[in-house]
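Hi W., the 2-acetamido-2-deoxy-beta-D-glucopyranose complex you wanted:
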Amino acid sequence: MEYDKQRSMLKVFSMMIMIMMGAQAQAQLSSDFYSESCPSLFHVVRQVVHRAVAREPRMGASLLRLFFHDCFVNGCDGSILLDDTPSFQGEKTAGPNNNSVRGYEVIDKIKLNVERLCPGVVSCADIVAISARDSVLLLGGPHWSVKLGRRDSTKANFVAANTGVIPPPTSTLSNLINRFKAQGLSTRDMVALSGAHTIGLAKCATFRNRIYNESNIDLSFATSRKKSCPATAGSGDNKEAILDVGSPKRFDHSYYSQLRDQKGLLTSDQVLFNDGPTDSLVVAYSRNLNAFYRDFARAMIRMGDISPLTGSKGQIRNNCRRPN
Ligand code: HEM
Ligand SMILES: *[C@@H]1O[C@H](CO)[C@@H](O)[C@H](O)[C@H]1NC(C)=O
Ligand SMILES: *[C@@H]1O[C@H](CO)[C@@H](O)[C@H](O)[C@H]1NC(C)=O
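Structure:
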């Protein structure tokens, strides 16, 4: 009797442990998540990203940024891809995204091709993560093993996207550090991830104050930027300039050399090298390409780990633009 009771208690106890371990295993992302269920996934994503970037190199930058803006708002859950619905406002029109985040059509195209081969299996959130990785590689940057197994959200968070979760380009260094810290990312991660500004463009409205009002800026750089960015707010707001004047289409470390020359385009770029605690990292990355690549890849994996929906949470959307 007593023995049976002990045995059944032991059984219940070990079952509880197994359930707990199962839940933990589900909460972990892994690089081989789709190796059985969708073996051609990487090939399909790479093919579409490759074509899109061949057509327009900037698309690589846009897809990388799309991943960042997805992950910082409620985690990497594909929420940024949702269009407005009668029951919620999407994130696409939030301040940092409106008329600025690009690449939605490329994600749609990948999803379409993936659904043909493995219907209902691969999340939009994971497609965004793989696209960002492939974009960096295609533009000459580092490779990393991207972790997968995220599921898609059923709603978006306009308010979070609109109110500073994504740091503004006018950020101070401590603001940047705190915004990344709030996502579980270190100052080192933040400085390495900012190196993404080695590619892509920014609109005049995002750097006007910097080129007209700041003193920690190279004079000839400011002068040349002013030519296509008028001082008056509202005029020429959408005129674009390259973020890294060193090598705008190559994913390298010239961004950090530009910062040392006071040629950071955004205030949030130049604060990384402005007689502060991150100066030494900027110098290190400007000198050592491999150190930058190593830390960037590491930080991308860490950013990809922000609050994923796993297990039975969320869903695998059929269409990345709307919940099922
Ligand atoms: C550290 C804080 C950051 C701030 C304040 C910031 C801000 C900005 C701003 C204002 C733009 C220009 C948008 C426009 O004018 O349309 C931009 C572009 C871009 N950002 Fe960031 N960003 C930050 C971090 C990141 C991170 C972590 C990544 C990715 C890992 C990233 C990737 C990019 C890319 C690739 C572009 C160019 C996009 C394109 O050309 O379509 N940024 N960023
Ligand atoms: C987004 O941009 C459009 C076009 O510039 C503008 O009409 C709209 O009001 C903006 N949306 C939000 C929510 O600010
Ligand atoms: C420069 O700073 C002043 C004072 O803060 C502000 O009124 C003005 O709009 C700024 N100019 C630009 C071009 O941002």
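Confidence is low (pLDDT under 50) at residues 10-26.

W.
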